[in-house]
Write a structure and sequence with these properties.
TIM Barrel, 8 strands, 46% helix, globular, metal ion binding, metal-binding, HpcH/HpaI aldolase/citrate lyase family protein, Aldolase/citrate-lyase_domain, aldehyde-lyase activity
């Protein structure tokens, strides 16, 4: 829990962070990524075939090597959120968040009362009951909530999305953003870059962390990524 708070504070302080995507279920892949020193591992359940059972193994593998784990579920449904959190996820990375109503719903799913409406259970996250009290006491202040900004609607609503204290940061999704702007797959199209810059500037205004995935993992590519104003990258 202390490590989770440390990384959450780095998000809050807009410090530079590195995450790694995991799209395959075997935990040895996650262990390798975590050993490499990533600050967090993001499980891609949206565009991969990773099941809830497999996700729990990935979460455990990531945490065993000192990396936080933030699953990206298929949807905003509690059918995904509840079991992933109870499996021990350190927070969530939600795809395609467009409205403040969606943000409020996600906060309700992620946070315990009185901040939210998450239900109380006993599973891996709560140490099967051995650390229930500590987990519940610390969860609201230590868990991480990241929103993906992937459409022109989200860009237009960005300030309202960032207005929630419970939101730790956002991730620009360049592929869906390009599709929303009518140039699918053209992630460096001027309209995509312009929309992304609006998100970056809004995050600066609201003091939120802002990241995106990066294809060019060379030193030059990373420097260009951060020079654009991003505070974290997912490789």
């Amino acid at each position: 829990m202390n490590h989770r708070k440390e990384i959450k504070n780095k998000f809050k302080n807009r410090e530079r962070l590195f995450g790694g995507w995991v799209s395959y279920a075997h935990p040895s892949i996650t262990e390798t990524f975590a050993k490499a020193g990533f600050d967090f591992i993001a499980i891609d359940m949206e565009h991969a075939t990773i099941s809830l059972e497999q996700a729990q193994r990935i979460i455990a593998a990531s945490q065993s090597e000192g990396s936080l784990c933030l699953p990206r579920p298929v949807s905003h449904s509690n059918d995904w959120t509840k079991p992933l959190l109870d499996s021990g996820a350190d927070g969530m990375l939600y795809p395609m968040v467009n409205t403040k109503e969606e943000v409020r719903n996600l906060i309700n799913l992620n946070k315990y009362p009185s901040m939210g409406k998450r239900s109380f259970g006993v599973n891996r996250a709560q140490g099967y009951g051995f650390v229930f009290d500590e987990y519940v006491r610390e969860w609201n202040s230590s868990s991480i909530l990241i929103l993906q900004i992937e459409s022109i609607q989200a860009v237009e609503n960005i300030e309202s999305l960032l207005s929630f204290d419970e939101v730790d940061g956002v991730m620009v999704g360049p592929y869906d953003m390009s599709g929303s702007l009518g140039v699918p797959g053209q992630t460096t199209h001027p309209s995509v870059l312009e929309a992304s810059k609006k998100v970056i500037l809004a995050c600066e205004k609201f003091g939120k962390s802002c990241g995106s995935q990066i294809a060019d993992v060379t030193q030059d590519g990373l420097e260009k990524h951060f020079d654009q104003g991003y505070t974290y990258s997912i490789l």
